[in-house]
Amino acid sequence: MEVVTFESEAYKALVGKIEKIAGYVAEAQLPSGEKKEAWLDSNQLAEA
């Protein structure tokens, strides 16, 4: 087995991106009538 190491901040950023993707996938699986409208502020938009 190979062990890969990287900085804590890089790991946290990666986990945050994975959680965003998981949220998009979960929302895409909802029937269209149950989807929530999402509003983004400028910071969230810049990160996306």
Label this structure with key terms.
48 residues, mainly alpha, 2 helices
Main pleated-sheet profile: none
Could you give the distance between the termini? 34 Å
Anisotropy-based shape: flat
Which percent range fits the helix content?
55-70%
Radius of gyration: 15 Å
The amount of beta strand, in percent, is: under 5%
Number of helices: 2
What pattern of helices and strands is seen along the backbone?
A: HH
The overall average pLDDT, rounded, is: 84
Extended strand count:
0
| Sheet/helix structural class | mainly alpha
How many separate domains?
A: 1
Q: Segments where pLDDT lies below 50 for 5+ residues? A: none
Description:
It comes from Bacteroides finegoldii. This protein has 48 residues and is mainly α. The chain contains 2 helices and no strands. The chain is flat, with a radius of gyration of 15 Å. The mean pLDDT is 84.
Concise summary:
This is DNA-binding protein. 56% of the residues lie in helices and 0% in strands.
Secondary structure blueprint with pairings:
Layout: H1 8-28, H2 42-47
